[in-house]
Amino acid sequence: MKAIVFDGIGSPRDVLYLDDIPVPQIGDNEVLVRMVSASVNPGDFLFIQNLYPEPKKPLFPRQVAGNHGAGIVERVGANVALRPGTLVAFSYYNSWAEYAAVPTEWLIPLPADYPLERAGQMVNPITAWDLLADSRVQPGQWLAVTAGYSSISTMVMQFAQRRGINVLSVVRRFHEGLDLKTLGATAVLDLSDLKAGVRETVLDITGGTGLNGIVDNVGGPVSGELIRSLALGGQMVINGGMSTERYELHNFDVLLSGVEIRANIYRYFFSPPVKADSPTLREIVDVFGQPDFHVPVGGLHPLASFKLAIANSLDHADLGKQIFTM
Question: Residue ranges of the chain with pLDDT lower than 50?
Answer without folding.
Answer: none
